[in-house]
Protein 1
Amino acid sequence: MIFIQLSERQEKIIDIVKENEPITGEAIAQRLKLTRSTLRPDLAILTMSGILDARPKVGYFYTGKTAFSFVSESIRKIKVSEVKSVPIVVDEESSIYDSIVTLFLEDVSSIFVTSNGFLTGVVSRKDFLKNAIGGLDLNKTPIGVIMTRMPNIVVTKPEETILDAAMKIIDHEVDSIPVVEEVEIKDGKSEYRIIGKISKTTITRLFVELGKND
Amino acid sequence: MIFIQLSERQEKIIDIVKENEPITGEAIAQRLKLTRSTLRPDLAILTMSGILDARPKVGYFYTGKTAFSFVSESIRKIKVSEVKSVPIVVDEESSIYDSIVTLFLEDVSSIFVTSNGFLTGVVSRKDFLKNAIGGLDLNKTPIGVIMTRMPNIVVTKPEETILDAAMKIIDHEVDSIPVVEEVEIKDGKSEYRIIGKISKTTITRLFVELGKND
């Protein structure tokens, strides 16, 4: 896929088609006082890009397609597996206090909780703050008591697009979601193993990368 | 600006140029068993997009420009003023406890602090959590005591691009930055009035909007 900065003449052609559709290539050339063959590459570009549509024996139409279509296509192609970051995980038996220390040491906004290596919960900075001012004994209370518990956890998978993951973060109003792979344990039951994390920081960093790209 | 999905023939042309640069249009046509004039629109598209470069009497070169250039251009065009969200502000004399309540009521990750209506500080969820477990009397201590104070605050302005703002957020490892306008007070001194906020949530939401755009 490529991107093209339209020339002034191409912009003029679009305007002419917008106002006069359907209009033949010959008629466009007349208005611009140019030959039909001079316009051929311009019309090829405008139809290939989908901005104009050409129907045989009728002429050119304006489709209304805009430049932003491309951004969307690029974002949709990036997979969660390509941009996921390292998840910070504690066991369900860890104290709230120790988990907060881990949160600060790792400088993350959420911590994922496991039992026997499988995802059982998520705790955000907001959850910690709520409980820190709530009078709980942070040293004695295990994190399992305050965490958001499965199956109420939004997750993403490596093969999903980063757009899907970002939509989950926005729709569910969370700061980050775990990237998981499903592991069958027995009797057809399955659990999630945590293999990464997608956060608002991941998305913001990706946004900067895409924006800086030359 | 427009976006074009390259045809198979155009992809082939790029490959031929990559391997044989510089190569004339005539030579490319021969390899594809096509006439020079059949290739003219393809070569026009590939040079206009900047993927190929044409030098008279020498031939075509491959420039190495990629599809992502366009995403970057789009992101660079969006101004902070177009996407900023509502800032949550408390006065420097407010207690830490009241500020935490505001943080929860408004569901934001950072609070901006003012004195006489001008920006004096920023407090994040992380700052609140650190002090909540630190043994301070949250009801009696004013937020001014724990805030990050001017001039150590990263700000953005309405006319800056959203890419600039996102880079500041990533580089300074903060969740959000205030959008300010500079107000001259007297003797050439100036202060910042807070008129908005750009956060990782703003960026993630914009990312989703750009990605969903059709």
Protein 2
Amino acid sequence: LPFMDASRMWFVIVLTGIGIGVTGAWLDVLVKWLADFREGHCVHGFFYNQPSCCSGFDAGEICTDWQSWGQYLDIQYILGQSLLHSVVYVALAVVFAGSAAILVQFYAPYAFHTGIPEIKAILGGYVLDAFLSPWTLLIKALGLALAVASGLSLGKEGPLVHVACCMAYLLSGLFKQFRHNEAQKRKLLAAAAAAGVSVAFGSPLGGVLFGLEELDTFANESDVMWRGFVTSVIAAMSLQYIDPFGTAKLVLFQVTSITDTWRAFELVPWLLLAVAGGVLGSLLIKLNVRVALYRRHSALNDWPLLEVVGVSALTAAISYLIVFTRVQTSELVANLFQECDPSKTDYHGLCNPTAMWENVFLLIVTALLKIALTAWTFGMMIPAGIFLPTIAVGASLGRAVGLLTQGLQRAYPGAWVFSSCPPDPTVPCVSPGFYAVIGASAMLAGVTRMTISLVVILFELTGALSHVLPIMISVMTAKWVGDACGKDGIYSVWIAMRKYPWLPPVAYRDKGETAAQVMTPIERLVIIEDGCTLGELDNLTRKYNFHGFPVVRDAELVGYVTRDKLIEFLFAREPATLSTRRCTFSSRRSTAEDNLENLSNLVEEAILQLRKEQPQELVVDMFQKLNLRQILFTHEGRLTGMVTKTDIVALLNLHFPHTAALSELPGRP
Amino acid sequence: LPFMDASRMWFVIVLTGIGIGVTGAWLDVLVKWLADFREGHCVHGFFYNQPSCCSGFDAGEICTDWQSWGQYLDIQYILGQSLLHSVVYVALAVVFAGSAAILVQFYAPYAFHTGIPEIKAILGGYVLDAFLSPWTLLIKALGLALAVASGLSLGKEGPLVHVACCMAYLLSGLFKQFRHNEAQKRKLLAAAAAAGVSVAFGSPLGGVLFGLEELDTFANESDVMWRGFVTSVIAAMSLQYIDPFGTAKLVLFQVTSITDTWRAFELVPWLLLAVAGGVLGSLLIKLNVRVALYRRHSALNDWPLLEVVGVSALTAAISYLIVFTRVQTSELVANLFQECDPSKTDYHGLCNPTAMWENVFLLIVTALLKIALTAWTFGMMIPAGIFLPTIAVGASLGRAVGLLTQGLQRAYPGAWVFSSCPPDPTVPCVSPGFYAVIGASAMLAGVTRMTISLVVILFELTGALSHVLPIMISVMTAKWVGDACGKDGIYSVWIAMRKYPWLPPVAYRDKGETAAQVMTPIERLVIIEDGCTLGELDNLTRKYNFHGFPVVRDAELVGYVTRDKLIEFLFAREPATLSTRRCTFSSRRSTAEDNLENLSNLVEEAILQLRKEQPQELVVDMFQKLNLRQILFTHEGRLTGMVTKTDIVALLNLHFPHTAALSELPGRP
């Protein structure tokens, strides 16, 4: 019944969309509450966060219902108050981060990190069901809220994609149609991943394009793209309906009141920012790899909890000292993106021209600090996304450059470079808030090496077509500079380090090599000879854990048999008979013959066969596009070798020095 | 020098984007001027169109500078004036359409029709350079302006994509890098096609998604997608910069002042519209096929000019009688999308509640008339897009349903279905303008069977996230209903009728068939035997115009040689020697031997070989994803058969009854 199949599919898709929207909203509320708890509490009840506690007051009034911990404990001395506040701030950060780490380490080791590398591998055909278990879903969501609230340098974007995929996996388990069909399941996961991005950024189209560009999922199948779009829109609408911030806005940070036009001279600071984004993005990736390698090969490997506690304490202690880092990262970004508007409160004097140098200095310190902390945090035993900290670094730098440009223009309004500015000095010419957007997009491009999805996500934030061009230029420049400093984005690097079987969708060009250079020749292959004993087969399955084995008769290829099928077959036989009975894989030979077991129905005969003279790039192309697991090579019917997906992955990762450096599974050192 | 290659590529892309934006703007201006010329002229000079002639006047004032033809010739009697107006209206329509047809027929036969089927085929690997010649570019652009101004039932969207591709092709010819690399050229064309849609609808993201969904171009290659996005944005910005309508808006019809919310009961009329869209869309496709077949097999085939003149006269005569069809189609759509607003002029009493029944009747007549006219017009010897007429049909129907719903709600405001409406009767509850949008999206989905790109294009028109859900539902429902009435969209139907080698990106599932069922067995293949005489080769190339021939030695496959290479080789030989000299394709045999020509360097040895037991769906999948031209089948090194792209296209078009019905080239009956 194709109609029932389609209905079930849409049922899962709509439910996943709603589920992710609700989860996203719930996470926001939880994080806000936990984060506010680090500063004080509400006299009406501890379960109110600060805005809902003070909702009855007007903007100008002082909210007395919300008490800081100093007020609550009635400490009179300012020094004592400050001390108490900082101690509570740091202590709760450690408690939150520590609980998240305990949850992850003991209940769901797969809930650590961002999850996007694993999802890329899964969507590429890797089967890793434990990664999508309901337990992982719960721990990742809860741990994420705790980790974000602890003020560590991490974001919720990537983990939210993981949560979305877990949810789709859970819902797909309701129907047999999906349980036993990996391809169908992958299509659902692709749609869910798009919805995760949609909720994380409030950008449904950005979610679809993220799925297309980074997850490489919807290739060649527009119905999958359509499902991803539907899920994204439903998720975004659910989030908007719940409206966790009470602002009727989809996103935490929205760019408001940008000026209509930009001037040509601004391209110079923007290009500088783009170059800085590319360089610093590469630096962040390199630092992150260093830290990951150090963690693996030092005592930290055995004490992940201690590491989380230590880093969160350090992060909280340093963050408390700097005004920009003390608040939640999302709030910082929102303020940096905000243009100066006399009718609104000025966030820490960012709009005060006399405080320019202090602000620039503090912003640059913030950016450098965030780079260092993020490089360490991304990879610890907690759920951690890299998008938001990257945006924060870029926005800080961008705002700093914007302030400098604005200062320059105000100091020399008559200079010829500024001649395109309006002559009236009270009309602002340079918008530092948009510089923060440019900086963020450049930094994101440097770290993730994405292009179109970043532009669309930031376009949906700003909403002005006229400002797409600078964003586009900065993303492209940052990607070029980043690619020159190091070929891979952060997700590809982690995939390579953890050795997931994922093929990057790059166009591979050989230099005249043929498949013969990459294939394992028959001499080094583990093959099954027709006519061997069942005991030999049993040994084979115990000794090697390959996915399967080619079957030959007199060097001529018969087919391919998977290890799972062999084990299943052998399990049903009496152990005593194994060493005497022989097997045949030919359907023509009669089983009536003595001591002959016919295994021909286990064999896949329709396995792809090529000649080893085929060019290497064609072989890579076939693995990339046909989602194959192996190709056998024959010559005049005789097996000459085999190439597996792992060989191709290794071939494409040759340039990266740390491949497989972290290949063991998390939680199992 | 990869850097120089990249620079040239970006140079072409940026220039194409600007070129398309400028062309789009220029076309709009030209069409407006021509169309206004049918009604009157400006006293300051005939080259002003009506808005620029009257630009000095306020909204309320009567513009005396613009004279209708009746005023100009100073005809006093109303009857005489009306007669003159209608005669000029019809006569100029015939003149415009006739000139367009003459241009197309005598100078660029490929400039007829929409062009999208051909572009799909070209992007799928078909080489048809005449279709993209500079001459086609010029005639298509000019003819398009004339055809649109003539008031025929056609739009500029599809032809604009063709124009964009011609422009990219022209610019790519500047560099050797593109001239001799079909794959590189195709990537440029894909980007240009996206930009064409971007300009046609003022929707840069819609352009990218159109490329993804309908043209199936960016699959697996995110850098191509990125280029398409850049081209789209640049084109849209150029258009906005030139601002042909002086409205600072990107699109001709923009949905304004839609209410914030919609009510659940409105889903009932919307679903009705969606079903109607699916049914009428299928009907339009079927009618169009009928007309195309009739045209081919009747006297019309020899008199295309006469057909254009006749249809344009008929269209103009009928259109003049109905108030909604007399104006340009884009203007009609803009007015139908417009919500009623007391501060704006009411377009032909659409907002007048007492005229409801007249309006509903006229709108339905308009929709039916447009369906009939469009079915005939789409395929005549003029440039003609199907998007705009389809939108007009859908918008008319939608507005009619919206008026009816509004009337019902106003008549029974207390009924329980309307309980969600605001109690104050002066506050409008139903927005008929948005019903027109829903109708348009449903009709588009029924005709083109696209999904996500339609939603994005219409989303960029309305801009409200809350209204994406109804558009999504209506598009999906219309597509389902349409698919139930007939499997293919209008572009696929035309591709099949004209027999272009294009593989639909559908997931093909065989019923256990293997490649053996679809391949041409060796007995029926034209093959080259190693050792045949050059005269035999010469005969082969004259007798068959296949792309190439397999080469065998003693039934064993040596390789594949293309016909072009053979012809080139034979051309350089003396005709007299052909019958005596023999050929060898083996590189090992020495050419010193008497009468032996070594052709081994002509042979492609790295041709894809499979066994004929491979499942059919794998073979189809390989053709779809690896962009192959043929696969050879061997068994133990011996050739057993061949499958070409044409075989696979035929296999996938089996269900369509009129395949190849129009397969000859236009202009060459």
Protein 3
Amino acid sequence: MKKFTSVDDIQDLDELISLATSIKAAPFADSEKGKNKTLGLLFFNPSLRTRLSTQKAALNLGMNAIVMNLNTEGWSLEFEDGAVMDGSSAEHVKEAAQVVSQYCDIIAIRSFPTLTDKEKDEEEYVINAFLKYANVPVISLEGSTEHPLQAVADALTVQEYKTIARPKVVLTWAPHPKALPHAVPNSFVKVMKKADVDFVITHPEGYNLNPEFTKGVTITHNQDEAFANADFIYAKNWSSYDDYGQILSKDPSWTVTPEKMTLTNNAKFMHCLPVRRNMIVSDAVLDSDASIVIPQANNRTYAAQAILTKILENEK
Amino acid sequence: MKKFTSVDDIQDLDELISLATSIKAAPFADSEKGKNKTLGLLFFNPSLRTRLSTQKAALNLGMNAIVMNLNTEGWSLEFEDGAVMDGSSAEHVKEAAQVVSQYCDIIAIRSFPTLTDKEKDEEEYVINAFLKYANVPVISLEGSTEHPLQAVADALTVQEYKTIARPKVVLTWAPHPKALPHAVPNSFVKVMKKADVDFVITHPEGYNLNPEFTKGVTITHNQDEAFANADFIYAKNWSSYDDYGQILSKDPSWTVTPEKMTLTNNAKFMHCLPVRRNMIVSDAVLDSDASIVIPQANNRTYAAQAILTKILENEK
Amino acid sequence: MKKFTSVDDIQDLDELISLATSIKAAPFADSEKGKNKTLGLLFFNPSLRTRLSTQKAALNLGMNAIVMNLNTEGWSLEFEDGAVMDGSSAEHVKEAAQVVSQYCDIIAIRSFPTLTDKEKDEEEYVINAFLKYANVPVISLEGSTEHPLQAVADALTVQEYKTIARPKVVLTWAPHPKALPHAVPNSFVKVMKKADVDFVITHPEGYNLNPEFTKGVTITHNQDEAFANADFIYAKNWSSYDDYGQILSKDPSWTVTPEKMTLTNNAKFMHCLPVRRNMIVSDAVLDSDASIVIPQANNRTYAAQAILTKILENEK
């Protein structure tokens, strides 16, 4: 693997999940693989799980992990080609990406979308600028349109908890007080299309995800119908894609409640976290045995370690 | 040891100090004990000594140390049970504590008091929420009411510098421009009650510490009287406990000066640092041979390393 | 080597460059030299290259690297002797420097100048306070008046890319929207005076550097004349030294363009980065084969590793 910025970079999902599973069984088995290699983790935005689990994954492989908060610890970056840099940006991404490549063997970067400039967000201009100018492999720690490390952890979690060969997996929109990105649902849609599951998306009208990604997936605006016989409920809020970045609804009837869960086939409840309690999901669901959000978060380490392993192996 | 959030968690102070002493003599002797273990250090507040010495202690034991500033690098946390999370808090401590437990083998956390809400502070709601929800041992890096790692370093320092079997140790209040927490004096009181010392507290009227903690300790409002024949002077400011969080006095006559020190038995001067020069203590004392604040700070490493050792040993 | 806060601390430049060259050829050859040693990196200001390359250098030597942003993560420091600390500064540098010396075997520190108080800046009051009070070797990560690690990387780069025994090296001022420090040009001047080069400085009138440093160096206000037959063009902006910290000119005719480069002897283009594109230098130069700014940045690791090596060796 030469880069990992999209679920599209996964060539064989089954093999990747199988690798993550064996890493989870023996996380320190390859603790020499990353010797004398450095992972640079660059953050433009807050992070808890991604920050800790990706560092942990690197350390498990014997890599060094250097974390940097680009906004507060470094120089403000310019992304425009040909810019006359007489403003507030002190450094062009052309130099920054090449320079970090001198010190780090793999660059991992988080950059959230603007949610106001759809075109810019869809260009993934930050991640793609690093991909373009860096001389080493680049990993997305969540970009504008995808969160692929989360998707690998999600697929691993479904694999671990499924009780039938082809489970029904439902991605449901749920209400949230703030406008949220599409990266997590986009990557979840992409990875579920690669998995052997019966996949359904449910959301209120006006909340279509990018149709390019959801093509071929069953979509319903009837949440109850979607929940019927489901084995996994994956809840997530996102802002409108068509009316870009807008909040069209905070309808509490979309909150995942114990009543809703009774419509399912004893479904497991999933969420990428952080989760707004009693907005996205009621306490009674999140605190029940049906919830697997904590083991799902735990799988972030093994997902990241599997990706780092594949990138390190490619280098040799 | 399963947790360390209070001096009350010390079962045998002599044995702990003895462990710290032997660690200090050979700090790298157990550099395999923490192999493949990760300490997560979570900070809600500034820190110099605690941040560096606890990392150093972990590294000496071969552990990985991952530091995170929760306010700026992570998500703002909700602590209320049953909250409808439609405000600014993005993640409930229930999830945060469980999630960090997936990546870290020990969680260490710093959270200062509000000094406005006495009830909330006394509940130690941050530290206790982590204790309640984390699945791994929790260490306090200073909470609302205690700073137990400091207390271990303090006890070790007294042990090292005492010249008689049962020295007289005086905790004296001293003036400061800002309202300060009670955590350091509380923990010092608790640890001195466990030590074989003649312990006296002196402070102006209105500056009683929590009487639950000071029960049985000699308290005087006459600083000179307290200093008489003292072997150790431990200076510290705290805000009023009764008139919670208020500054009742900045009386410069309580500053520790060379004149005051002449009342003692060539006492050593101690302070947890950071210290306000010429408020808490005059330059002439702090820069004299009587001051042992630097070796006291150095002992923070060995105190932390002793606690980490005991927690790691318990796990096995 | 007992400290490294100025180019003046280099006793034998050739030997240092030779050491850096051999380290670059085998960066992990001495990975036990720093075992159980800790480098503390203290930042008062933003940093990308210095932050990453110095950490990398320490890790290559088997050292632990602990990074701390003093402004946001620690206590605000007092530097005045005898201060009555009743203001916003919580800790005196006397304690801070001694305390960090308890936890770290080498202290590295970055502190930019005020550019308003010339006297204070020239005293290097931050770096020098750490030098005075620390009990371990101190390295400058860029102070008010020097950036010596950059200078070592610069000298190494000139050594690597020169095609004749005694190349002509030109330091040219170039325009910039903000007032910048003199540390980089000062250290570059100092190191070039130690190197076997034909060294010329060119800048507009009013932009003299500290004459103490430039004594004996050819200085011209005619940039074209300076560029004639040059082998290296080192561009850098600085604010006025005489009219301290002021911007006297943003004259775009001083920008390094392809036309200007044709005056040279196929010169290599150097800059310490971050660089303002199309202010300091036009895209066409920076994106050409003449530009060696990325390998120059890469050399920061080996420069730092050479300095750390010399300091570690001195300790034994």
Protein 4
Amino acid sequence: MTNPTAAMLVIGDEILSGRTRDSNMHHLAQELTKHGIDLREVRVVSDDAPAIVAAVQALAAGFTHVFTSGGIGPTHDDITAEAIARAFDTPITVRDDARALLEAHYKRTGGTLNEARLRMARIPDGAALIDNPVSIAPGFSLRNVHVMAGVPAVFEAMVASVLPTLTGGQPVLSQTLRVNRGEGDIAGPLGVLADDFPDLSIGSYPFQINGVFGTNIVIRGQDGARVDAAMTRLAEGVAE
Amino acid sequence: MTNPTAAMLVIGDEILSGRTRDSNMHHLAQELTKHGIDLREVRVVSDDAPAIVAAVQALAAGFTHVFTSGGIGPTHDDITAEAIARAFDTPITVRDDARALLEAHYKRTGGTLNEARLRMARIPDGAALIDNPVSIAPGFSLRNVHVMAGVPAVFEAMVASVLPTLTGGQPVLSQTLRVNRGEGDIAGPLGVLADDFPDLSIGSYPFQINGVFGTNIVIRGQDGARVDAAMTRLAEGVAE
């Protein structure tokens, strides 16, 4: 069985300048793996409309789903919604359903729904809103692109809103063996194991702690019995 | 003055599956900013030769420099060097200079330069080696692509080796103002400020701590006096 595929597009100068460390990629990667959707590519681009449009078009054509993070707030550098609309040649306006959510929220909290905040109700025609229980201003799904906020608490809440609506595949199971040997010592037998279990993904991830080299070997697959069999063989042949 | 541009290509299933949190992107972003090179795009792809080849070709054509991370170790899933060679249609063999480094290293440490480890001496024709003071096996620069290891300690050491050899631009200066107001409250005056200082980049980054919303406003530019002037105006107009 082939799982649905996904790509992520992170939008934000602050990641590329090194000012902020992105955490949304790691969160989404873990959630998609649990849901049986294979994350195949991530791109990070700046707050630049042509860059966003080009990336969205390429990724939407290549993968089952695209998840974006960032650029949907109220300020001048929040241009993601417009760029997504342009990528699909879709009109975008302040939509009544999104405006009603914001009106109710600011009425409740005593804030003002000013012109800047009203930008957050700009939603492309035909898009479905993504619920934002943290700060109300919604994300949206247009075709196979799911547009979410960059603030991690909001991004994570939106992921939790949208993932249950998507058809997942069979979750990928994984087992890890940690060996206190360098990759170069175990690369030979590991290659043989990978040849013998072509249905599994066998990765080796070197680490270095206090000057000692070791390797985590991770075996991944959808069939638990096969993962077990490969892990047993690995433990006999490679570990000491 | 326009600074040189850069893209980064992170290669590794372990990032996309959520098993590992990438830290090389953040490190490189900070180092490039200090060096006056503008990081414009990052892509993360899996250990898949066609995906690596396509990404390298696209990024090498679009930016002054490309920096890659991951996939140059001794195991079966380390396919980056071959993929880079293929991307530029360049022959790749075990090269004497790289082999000599490894031979000396394993002689010194009592390890064995077996067939798997010898893979780490496979370097495309015409590439310049990148020094690896941590674990010796070198990276390399082929045309405008700088190929480095994924283990953070090694990646960081290789960045330190290669960056001083590249022509940098004028470093980007930045100042940050933290205000305890939501983005929506300050978006209006911030847009006016951005219009008045078109030579500067003015970003606003919302945060939420203990249920309180606030915003970091970051002004970036190459001319310190202009950044100062914009920050003074900002502090008068927006902060309370």
